[in-house]
């Protein structure tokens, strides 16, 4: 039997969380719509540039793909919102600690960096696990219906995968709270925006990173659009933000750098898309 005080605490916690539920829906939905919508507009406005850098030239997403992605992303947003309630309930009950004041910029920076680094490891191993034959159909197969990704693929998950993806934040905050770390709200906010921006970039369909990215030691460890697009089209490349785990575990696509160099064409924003014949035509005598 629960003590009366515990009953009151539970009731208060759920009442408070209920007040925030629609705000959570608006926030998660807004992040997705803003990030995917902005990138879609960018690719349409700079169509020549996007066409020159298109990764899968023989296949293109159709109306049915966009419809499936948007509808399943709506379901994902609901799952994300429900999962976020675990964070709010944990905070109300005192097992998760984060604060909304104005901490030092250094605090925000190191806490943000830690969340990104741990999430990259979490995503890699979760992603590999979902590709196991016993789990793939029930978790990750829906996402791979998008053979040719679009920015709207970012949240196109089955409910099970959406829950597993969303579980990272409450689990991370629960562990860090038990270690005595009270996270800054701004660090969490920046992480959430960074996550969705990198997610839609990975599914852009056209290479967004500049030529030479994979050959520069200062940038080669940051994954590109080609890196994840190869995962959708031919496997390998389970990492998210960085290429470290794929390199360490031998799961990087063997032609990743070669494919990136082919896709990362020089900057041509407007005009007629370049064709092989345009660049190979001999000069007149």
Span of the ends, CA to CA: 95 Å
Overall residue-averaged pLDDT value: 89
Largest sheet: 2 strands, parallel
Low-confidence stretches: 276-285
| Protein structure class | mainly alpha
State the helical fraction.
55-70%
> Count of DSSP helices?
12
Series of secondary-structure elements, N-terminal to C-terminal: HHHEHHHHEHHHHH
Beta-strand percentage range: under 5%
Radius of gyration: 21 Å
How would you write the strand order of the largest sheet?
1-2
Coarse morphology: globular
Number of strands: 2
Describe the structure.
The chain is mainly α. The chain has helices at residues 4-45, 47-52, 63-92, 105-130, 133-139, 159-166, 168-178, 185-202, 225-234, 244-249, 256-263, 276-280, and strands spanning 98-99, 183-184. The chain is built from twelve helices and two strands, in the order H-H-H-E-H-H-H-H-E-H-H-H-H-H. Helix 3 (63-92) packs across helix 6 (159-166). The chain is globular, with a radius of gyration of 21 Å. The model is unreliable at 276-285 (pLDDT under 50).
